[in-house]
Amino acid sequence: MKVAFLGPKATFTDLAVREMFPSAQSIPYMTIPDCLDAVMEGEVDISVVPLENALEGSVNITLDYLIHEMKLPIIGEITAPIKQHLLVHPQYKDSWEQVEVIFSHSHAIAQCHKFLHSQLKGIPCESMTSTAAAAKYLIEHPEVRAAAIANELAAKEYGLAIAKGNIHDFDFNHTRFIVLSKIYKEIPAQSLGSVGEKTTVMVTLPSDRSGALHQVLSAFAWRNLNLSKIESRPMKTGLGNYFFIIDVEMKLDEVLIPGAIAELEALGCSVVILGSYPYFNIEKTCP
Ligand SMILES: O=C(O)C(=O)C[C@]1(C(=O)O)C=C[C@@H](O)C=C1
């Protein structure tokens, strides 16, 4: 089985894949859209991409690609703890406070704002395609006096020193990753026990109808369907046009969820099921 992940080696997505698919052949791709193309085009069987971080919110590029560019079913979700460290080339370990630039993934930079503001105030931060891409850049460019925000595995993989550990601003820093596949309907054998099941739907409201969102929510509420997430994203058709992504804490059944969907359609909403899948938690991701 081939699994695409946001690379290079030692990103947080790589760590999630190692936990979830320990015996798969994992293949790094440079960007999230590249990971999604790889599974669409059949280069890989499965793709794992980040969807949401507890401190920074949704990874919009993942959501937008799933909605606007390609229709790929979600077959699973994995939540992993995220520990960010400040890495430097070993030659700068004792002088890390003099770095001139900090590289990382934009989400990782955002997760460490308080640290950066208090300890490295005024030092520019530059966004890279992933945390591990930033770490790799450092070892390949020892002449640049730079730091990377990345994980412990990236420090080991690229031979960097950890100048400051655990620099994320809040202890509870977790990211949810989704598993996408055209060929598997369920997650192929893996060692983790699932925590629960959920169904994700995308709902577009009829335009200009008062109380539409209230009616959508009541279709779930009176059926006692628990919603664990509701988020709006622009439809990209005009200012003020949004759709909603809703997570229902239940596997797709034959009665309740189809009943709610039929009710929404009767209200003039359009509804697409993005997936009904198990979710998993990993407690520890760094060796
Ligand atoms: O850059 C990485 O290491 C990733 O796996 C991406 C990513 C993200 O997109 O949110 C994943 C987890 C962390 O929240 C930071 C970055």
Secondary structure: number of strands: 15
Shape, principal axes of CA atoms: globular
- CATH level 3 topology of the largest domain: D-Maltodextrin-Binding Protein, domain 2
Mean pLDDT: 93
What percent of the residues sit in helical stretches (DSSP H or I)? Answer: 25-40%
Protein architecture, described:
With 287 residues, the chain is an alpha/beta fold. The chain has 3 domains: 2-82 and 173-180, Periplasmic binding protein-like II (D-Maltodextrin-Binding Protein, domain 2); 85-164, Periplasmic binding protein-like II (D-Maltodextrin-Binding Protein, domain 2, 3-Layer(aba) Sandwich); 196-277, ACT domain (Alpha-Beta Plaits). Helix content is 28%, strand content 32%. It contains 9 helices and 15 strands. It has helices at residues 12-20, 32-40, 60-69, 106-111, 113-119, 131-140, 152-158, 212-221, 256-266; strands at 2-6, 25-29, 46-53, 57-58, 74-81, 85-88, 101-104, 125-127, 146-150, 161-164, 174-180, 196-204, 227-234, 242-248, 270-281. The strands form 2 sheets. Strands 1, 2, 3, 4, 5, 11, 12, 13, 14 and 15 form a 10-stranded mixed β-sheet that branches. The chain has a 5-stranded mixed β-sheet with strand order 8-7-9-6-10. The longest helix is centred in the C-terminal third of the chain and has 11 residues, at 256-266. The radius of gyration is 21 Å and the shape is globular. The model has no long low-confidence stretch (mean pLDDT 93). Bound molecules: prephenic acid.
